[in-house]
Fold:
Amino acid sequence: MMLTLTGRLQTLGVVSGAKILGRTFCGFIAAGLSFAPSVSAHFIPDEGTGTQVDAAVVATWRSASVVDQYEFWQIPGTLMGGDAYPVNSGLSVDEVTVKAARRVDANTFVKLGLGVHQGGSQSGDEHQSVAVEHASLGFICCETKGPGIGEIAAEFVAEIGVLSAAFTPELLSHRSTASFSEPSLIADVFFGRHFHDQGARVWLHETAGWSVGAEIWQGKAFPATEGDDGGAWDVFARYKFDRDKLNMTLGGWWYTADAQSRADHRYGGGHQHTPVAPPGESASQFPDIRYTGDVALLGFDASMAYQWTAASSMGVQLSWAQLTMDGALHDSGGREAALEADQYAVWVQPYLKWQQHNVAVRVERVVADNRLSGASAATLGESAGALNVSGHTPQRASLAWTYQWRPQTAFRTEWIQDETLEDAQSRFTLGVIWHGSLLSGGHSHGGH
Structure:
């Protein structure tokens, strides 16, 4: 049985300290508005620098919606949730983020991240609200300097608060910095697109090319649930290799979670709506099927790039993840079915950067092997999406071209061949990205 993280931290005075942290950051942001290195979720500001704040806005027009307005998006053979909403036709603001960081002293730093992301419902209403994605207090121990100017040879880092996951680059990517405007199927299917939770992290940060750490979570982020029988934890390791014009990164991770009566909060649970379609149209009623049991994920990430000039490079990125579930599906009527699931998802993305142009191709695939048993197995499995009677294999291919028009402004167009559902669809997009600084505090180290 996993105790809630809040209970563990109250004895340390962290809950009350979070209020002070929030007020401190409000003062930082109000201090003024000019670009530092990008303030990422795992950015660590250097000692002697001031407050650093950057922001991003992404808007995209799409030629088609993944599903009809009064339908729900459920990829066959998977149990989805979190914030994995389908993209809609027309113009949408995919992302608005503001991130701040400050080095308080030699061993302490604070960070805050606020975000608004695109989301929708069967009724067509946009569920966009400001969310605290990161609000943490960090501690640095045993930092030693390397031979180069500003180079860090070794350091141990601990963070506590509302954190963004560090165990896989899959959950670090934002639409303003990624090659594509649509998140990967690994992020959408296995993690509900975004992963922000109350937790704690300890890691050996970028030491001799290595980053090794562990994280513990309260369970607010999909696929876990919070409570005495919920929560999650993970371990990870990454190695970065640089030689001349070639660089490589290899990483592996393990994530495990407990789920108690987990709902798909996109359409069900406490956020359930009863869609009403206009005359002549019909609306699908979402079956609120819950999952209770264990969840485990194993993943591998890799990237390789060759940079032949300062403004030109080519490379390839790869991500693979395997999910296992052992538990039960159930509903409010008392029906229950045992579920054992083995699923994996993979994507490969080669890319080419030449001066102001970036061209990328991404190919994705999801394979699910789910075994259900019990008197209600067929009914619950079909309603929850766990049964894939037709044997359809969800996959998607995407092509993107991004033009960096100005240092802080880029334009992006994409073509997507989407076969995640049985009815294949082609769509294209046109978008604009602004990513810039509001307040520059100087140097930093440690991106991801």
The chain has one domain: 5-445. Confidence is low (pLDDT under 50) at residues 1-37. Residues 5-445 form a domain with the Porin fold (CATH 2.40.160.10). The longest helix spans residues 14-30.
